[in-house]
């Protein structure tokens, strides 16, 4: 079972999320918080697998709560679920350690899929949030004498990963096995000194590696 904690200051939102997620046979709602401070405190006692975190809340906002939670519980996956898609919210949220960023108008089934993606170690970022990432970081063009640490195939895998594809989808797209994809992703993390798919995606955007190498 995927243990989910909901953090949102709006009662109606929490009720709606709980009503839907309780219908998912592989999910268990372990608690709900009305602000970031409560979310942080409940995390210590409940140890959820995934936290659905609102951004703007009283007492402590979602970004500060995410930073504190990830500093002591790095294994917990945090999905920002908000109404804001501007850079002033998207960039700080992902830099704070959120593994996903979705808007509250997301379809219920898509939300469930997003939660499952996080549990598989995959990133899940709304297209509008991805656009903000592209605006934030202009691609860094390496000099002719600068060699990139990734192999051409690893660059291909990174490009597919940045599009939010699962390991299975990447394997199908590149005509390789899922095991091979997992190996490439492990190598990418090690070479780029990143810890998860979201950080790898941010690196790809910053360094202009969002398109396949073509080799």
Automatic annotation (TrEMBL):
- Native organism is Psychrobacillus psychrotolerans
Domain spans labelled Response regulatory: 3-119
Please give one Pfam family short name: GerE
Q: Where does it sit, as one GO cellular component term?
A: cytoplasm
Q: What name goes with this protein?
A: Two component transcriptional regulator, LuxR family
Q: Which InterPro entries match?
A: CheY-like_superfamily, NreC/VraR/RcsB-like_REC, Sig_transdc_resp-reg_C-effctor, Sig_transdc_resp-reg_receiver, Tscrpt_reg_LuxR_C, WalR-like
Q: Name one GO molecular function term.
A: DNA binding
Q: Where in the cell is it found?
A: Cytoplasm
* Keywords, comma-separated and alphabetical: DNA-binding, Phosphoprotein, Transcription, Transcription regulation
